[in-house]
Structures are given as structure tokens and as C-alpha cells.
Amino acid sequence: MKSKTIKYLAALFCGAVCIGGMTSVSASAASAGPGDVNDDGVIDSADASDILSAYSAISVGEDPSLNDTQLKNGDVNSDGVTDSADASDTLSYYSYVSTGGSSTLTAYFNDLRATETVDFSGVDPSSFGLVESYSAEHMHLGLKWNPVAGATGYHVDLYTDQSYDENGQPFRFSLDVKEPQFTAQLPAPLTASNNYRYRITPFAKFGDNPTVYSEIKYVDGSKGAYFLNGTRLYNDIKFRVNTADLKPHDSYALYNMLDENNVYKMNAYEQPTDEDAFWISDSEKEILAQFAQEHFTPGMTNYDKILYFMNWVHDNNSYATYEQYQENYLWDGRFVNAVVNLKFGQCLQFNGALAELMSQMGYDVYMIHCYSAPGVQHYRMDLNIDGIVYGMEVGDKTYDNPPTGYKWMWAFDTSKPMLIHRPDKP
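Above: the chain's sequence. Below: its structure in C-alpha cell form.
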């Protein structure tokens, strides 16, 4: 800090000390602790003055008048340094109790910070500077990364395909840590044939106030980080689907990828011209729940369930005629009812039902209106996992071509995404 600024703050605190002396109001403390740097049992302007004096001395390379314990107590905002910001916070608390406030210093700042918007949007995942480490027997995986501004801690999820539970979920080790480092105990030695991945989510937590989790997170995207020969199988799509960050939701977007001439924009990086959304009704949820109870067996992974549903739709449905489409109002959003109960539909119903299932499971999916002509149109869907977009489409047997092996169904296909950038997503 510039000397001019230090002198200004010193003058400011001098005034505060004088006012404090006139009013004789101070914050009581049971014993020396945060804010009470002079160990007199109260937190007041004198403590703020001592903090500023110590900071001024440190700034010019001199020894501060406070000892190590007092300097620690002077770190009011717990950022690891004792400086003018701590002096300012001490004065803020002193002003608070001087006007009748009764909360402790820690509770006061927890409540104050909780009212502030914690914004992680500027975090660049590459700034984590993450480094992996492993124990000699490969039973422990360690992670270290750079601190994230505004974070009071980090939620870490580590997955490996060393084992799956009865619900079809891969091994998961989750932990909240305060410091930017983490060590996981693995179920078995990690080998070259194992997939593993991790997700680090910064969060801000102040006292009893709600935790604010970052939308920006570090997701493992390394290329064979554990074995330098590059044999790591992380790109295995089944493992990626089974370890996706899931947030179940009751709606999914519909994007129009047609230009003014109703021609599909072949560049998947172009943004759609407009957007809408489909909402999943309670009756649709009930049909999905009944289908899951009757068809999904213990041990099936999410990947298995999605493929099972797609194959079931393909094998058990017929292409709806014009009369069936009109008589049953197949455009009304009850897509699961169409394919599970009525067992007929068209592209909108087949892919809409799949989108409903995957939305309820928590996947980031969206429908695309990609073709339109008089009496003809086409819909399909995409899936986004950690920024990688996969084309998804399912239909009945109408357009299958057994001699060539073509089947109207493809899943998790990175060569077939139709829309990469969406207007409502970062």
C-alpha cells in the first residue's frame, strides 16, 4: 500500500480512537481472540489502530509491535494476512456494537458476508493449476490446486470404475475440504485399465447461512494423467455418463435450428434463432416411474438404463399415421404416454420421451427442431456432459435397413451433435 494511503487510514483511525474515547463504548470479549489484539478483553478502535500500526511496520520491513498471537487475532477476515482490511473490519464491528449490536465478531461477519453475492463466474477452470499425486501402492490419489478467490472451501467428488454398487453407481469418494488439497482412499490399487475422474466445486459458507456453490468447477479432463504412456481410459463414454453431474429437472429446452428459409444450419456452432421449452407433467413422471419399476433391474447403471429405454422405444413402437397423430393430440407434450402406453409416435414423441427420462435422471439434454417442410418436420436431441456434446436420436423400425445394418437409433455420438452453443448457457 502507498504511504499516502497508510497515512490517510492512520488519520481516519485516530479520529475513530478519539470518538471512541468520548463515547467510551466498546465490544466486550470473554478473552483475547479475533479482533482483540491488545488483549484488553474488548474489541474497539484501539485494536484497529494497533492493527494498522503493525501493518504499516510490516509494509516497510520493520518488526511489528504485535506478537504472533496478536497478529493472528488481528487477521479478522481470516485471509492469512493482517493488514488495513482487518483494521477496517475491526472498526466496522466496533461501530456495530457501539449502536447496540450484540453478535460476536465472527457471527457479525458471517451474517454480513452471507448477504453479499458470492460470484465465482469469473473463475477460469485452468487457473486451478491442479496437480495429481499417488501413493506408492496406488491406494491413494492426492489432488492440490490453487486457491479460488471468494471460496471458503471446496466440495470434491472422485469416481473410479473399480467397483459398482447395487444401484449401478461407480465407486465415489466425496469430501468437503477447507484447503485446496484432497486425498482419497481408493477401494483397490489403481491400474492402467481403470477409469477415474474428479470434480472440484468451490463454495462459500459463512456461519449458519446457506452454502453458495460455484457453477464453475474443475472437471478432470486430463489425458492419461496417471500413466504417462497414455493408456488411461477416461474417454470411455459409459464411465462419463455414469459420473455426470446430475441435476434432475422438470423441463428441457427446444431450439429452432432453421434459418429464414426453413433450412437447417449445418454449422453446429451457430446459435439457434429462438427457443422454447417442454414441461414434464406429473402424469408423465408417473408413467416413467412405472416403467422403471417394471424394466430397470438392480445393478443397471444410468448408461444401461438409457440404452435399454432407447432400444425398448425402437423395438416396441410403430410410426404414427396422420390420423393417429391428430386423434391422440400427439403434439401436446405427453410424449412418454405416447411411446410407453400408446406405443406409437413420430420423431418428436420418440425423442421427447427420451429427453423426459434423461431430464428426470438429471442430464443436460435439449430438443432440436432441425428440419421443416410442408407436411414434414424433424426433431431430435443432444446431450451435454462437461461441455462435450453428444448426438442422441431414437425412432421405430420404419427406417431401419437390415442389409446395411442401419438402425434408427444412435446414442452418445460425438460425431452427430447438432447444436454446440446455446443462447441461455455460458
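Residues 1-31, 223-230 have pLDDT under 50 and may be disordered.
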